[in-house]
Amino acid sequence: MKGYNQAIKDALANDNPTVTLIEMALKNGTILLTTAAHDITHNANEYLASGLVLDIPSSQNQKELNIESVQVEFTAADPTILALFSNENQVNRRVKIIEVILDDEHQVIGELLSKNFTINSWADEDDGEQATVSIELSNWAGYFKTLRGIRTTQASFSRFYPDTTSFINSKDIDIDQKWGGE
């Protein structure tokens, strides 16, 4: 089990409800939504219970590095989400999906899982009964390609090029590298 604090462990043992929070950093601004039946406040952010979120795949916590692709589905009965994606190119924008556990007053006790994704594509569908917007997301490993023999630290680089300091400041690079567009 992940290193949860005692309050989260107790809530899990009591089968407290869990909800998902979605944070989409789109070109038009950040959209905060939740699957809960009411608005959720978490880390000073207000996640809206708009009813727009139809489906988010169940979460799985794995230790190995893997490329994960998920599809999030929204209703298009309210044209808000459709307008966000049809009016601007949102490909490569960041999406964060957070699963939280709630207490008896439906306040957040803590995070069970938090994952960052980028938007690969989106599609809308209207079958006459239900109109939906589906967003295909993948985690950062989907964009990560490595080449054999590439030197990524000052120590490994200096073995072959002893007089250079190309990677001397690599430790100062922001570890939360943003992939894709703005």
Largest sheet: 7 strands, antiparallel
* First-last Cα distance: 35 Å
Helix content: 10-25%
Within the CATH hierarchy, at the fold level, what is the topology?
Answer: Thrombin, subunit H
CATH class: Mainly Beta
List keywords for this structure.
mainly beta; two-stranded antiparallel sheet; Thrombin, subunit H; 3 helices; 182 residues
Give an overview of the whole structure:
There is one protein chain. This protein has 182 residues and is mostly beta strands. It has one domain: Trypsin-like serine proteases (Thrombin, subunit H, Beta Barrel). The protein is 13% helix and 37% strand. The strands form two sheets. The chain has a seven-stranded antiparallel beta sheet with strand order 2-1-7-8-9-6-5, with helices on both faces. The protein has a two-stranded antiparallel ribbon with strand order 3-4. The longest helix is centred in the first third of the chain and has 8 residues, at 6-13. The chain is flat and about 65 Å long. The model is unreliable at 60-65 (pLDDT under 50).
Please outline what is shown here:
This protein has 182 residues and is mainly beta. The protein is built from three helices and nine strands; from the N terminus they run αββββββαβββα. A hairpin with a 4-residue loop joins strand 8 and strand 9 (131-138).
Could you give the topology of this structure?
Elements: H1 6-13, E1 18-26, E2 29-34, E3 40-42, E4 45-47, E5 53-55, E6 69-75, H2 80-87, E7 94-102, E8 108-126, E9 131-138, H3 154-160
Antiparallel strand pairs: 1-2, 1-7, 3-4, 5-6, 6-9, 7-8, 8-9
